Amino acid sequence: MTVEHRSRPARSEAEVREELERARSQVVGTAHALKRQLHDTWDVRQWVARRPGLTLGIAFAAGLVLGIRRR
After folding, report:
1. Radius of gyration of the chain (CA)
2. DSSP character for 59?
């Protein structure tokens, strides 16, 4: 049983640094995109702007529940 080793050509320090910088840029870009998406998902103003009727209904129901509980 023989094991075949694939040898990669040795990379220079500059190539390794470039690859690391590309990977870092991708991670940073992904993190920023995730941050924007989370902000948009949990931003109350945008949520209300996208669903004004539902928001009004929730506010009305909450008012009813709180009003009934206080009597």
Report:
1. 27
2. H
56 in a structural domain: yes
* pLDDT score of 17 more than 60: yes
Q: Write out the residue range of the structural domain in which residue 56 sits.
A: 13-70
Predicted confidence (pLDDT) per residue in 39-52, tens digit:
888 888 888 999 99
List % helix, strand, coil for the chain (3-state, nearest 5).
80, 0, 20
Whether 55 and 48 have beta carbons less than 8 Å apart is answered as yes
Measured between alpha carbons, how far is 10 from 26 in angstroms, rounded to an integer? 24
> Is 0.70 topped by the overall pTM?
no
Q: From the CB of residue 30, how many other CB atoms can be counted at a distance below 10 Å?
A: 10
Distance, CA of 37 to CA of 28 (rounded, Å): 14
Counted domains in the chain: 1
Q: Which amino acid is at 48?
A: V
